Amino acid sequence: MARIPHLTSAEFEILKVLWRLGQGTVAEVRATQQRGGAVPAYTTVMTLLGRLAAKGAVLVDRSREPFVYRSAHRRESVIGSRVRDFLRDVFDGKADSLVLHLVEDEALTLEDLRALERVLTKSSRAEEATTAAAATSTRRGRRAAGGRAK
Amino acid sequence: MARIPHLTSAEFEILKVLWRLGQGTVAEVRATQQRGGAVPAYTTVMTLLGRLAAKGAVLVDRSREPFVYRSAHRRESVIGSRVRDFLRDVFDGKADSLVLHLVEDEALTLEDLRALERVLTKSSRAEEATTAAAATSTRRGRRAAGGRAK
DNA sequence: GCCGACCAACTACAGTTGTCGTAACAAGTG
DNA sequence: CACTTGTTACGACAACTGTAGTTGGTCGGC
């Protein structure tokens, strides 16, 4: 599980664009960056992509010019890392505390929670089915649920 | 609803201590700061408390020496602000996306979710009851569920 | 064969953050 | 009283961040 380097907020924004595009040149990233109003200078985007490349967060294809950049990690991994950090810093690592807060703060309703649960119940059943199928056929299986802290 | 100023991570740690203590002097905060191993220098804590005071995040009682500091905002408010920022930056403001991620990332199990729901269902019923009682008796009421975005 | 459009490499720079060191002062102690 | 101890007020600083200007090379045209 590759460790995700620390990303500043400007860098993270760049990554989000890269995930959206799949990959892109400095100019493409710059054009896609849709934050309200001002587009950052070309060199600003370049600097950021350079820093990201330096810390291994993006890969650069220098065989083509202009260089083509893409994220070195899947979106889910990076976001997962951010969530874990946030959880550790703010909720002492306890995910249920966060969800509880969300509901109490009315960012989420009880109904949202139930809807989510329905979706998840269904998908988890589907996954069990495919896992079982895979197990009996290809014997490939998938990584079982790892041990979660506390 | 007082706007919470932006807090750096070191500043937030100080606030956490202050909430734990209720209030405290530089020395007390410093002693309570329990991060693994190294205690920060006395002046480091002072600088941080000073910066927090400067941005209105903590209140200082200078009538007593050593000065006594305490958070200017309730824990829930500050955390709520942090959560909202995080949600906006990482999940496009969608709380349900975050919870979905949590479950998919196994930080939370379906069972945790159900347990949470049970707790919340019970407390929301209790709140309804008290609200109704308050409404019929003192006419005081409480802020109704505010409009949530989207 | 010079020109403007692109592009990568550097350099720059002010602001922010995390951590301290020093000076100066009040109170307690031998 | 000379010292030690606990405090506040300031100043410092290196690392990190967000943003961008400058330099110098390439390439397709006119």
Architecture overview:
With 150 residues, chain A is mostly helical. Chain A is built from six helices and two strands; from the N terminus they run αααββααα. Chain A has a two-stranded antiparallel ribbon with strand order 1-2. In chain A, helix 2 packs across helix 3. The longest helix of chain A is centred in the last third of the chain and has 28 residues. Chain A is extended and about 50 Å long. The two termini of chain A are 20 Å apart. The C terminus of chain A is likely disordered. At the A-B interface, helix 4, helix 5 and helix 6 of A face helix 4, helix 5 and helix 6 of B. The structure holds a DNA duplex (30 and 30 nucleotides).
Topology readout:
The structure is a homodimer of 150-residue chains.
Chain A (H helix, E strand, L loop, with lengths): L8 H13 L4 H7 L9 H13 L3 E4 L6 E4 L3 H17 L3 H10 L5 H28 L13
Antiparallel strand pairs in A: 1-2
The structure holds a DNA duplex (30 and 30 nucleotides).
Net shape of chain A: extended
Largest interface by Cβ-Cβ < 8 Å = A-B, 40 and 40 residues
Which structural category do the helix and sheet elements of chain A fall into?
mainly alpha
End-to-end separation of chain A:
20 Å
Element order of chain A: H for helix, E for strand: HHHEEHHH
Helix segment tally of chain A: 6
Overall mean pLDDT score of chain A?
89
Helix content of chain A: 55-70%
In the predicted model, the low-confidence regions of chain A spanning at least 5 consecutive residues are 141-150
β-strand percent of chain A reads 5-15%
Q: What's the main sheet of chain A like?
A: 2 strands, antiparallel
Strand order of the largest sheet of chain A: 1-2
Rg for CA atoms of chain A? 20 Å
What multimeric state do the chains show? homodimer
Strand tally of chain A: 2
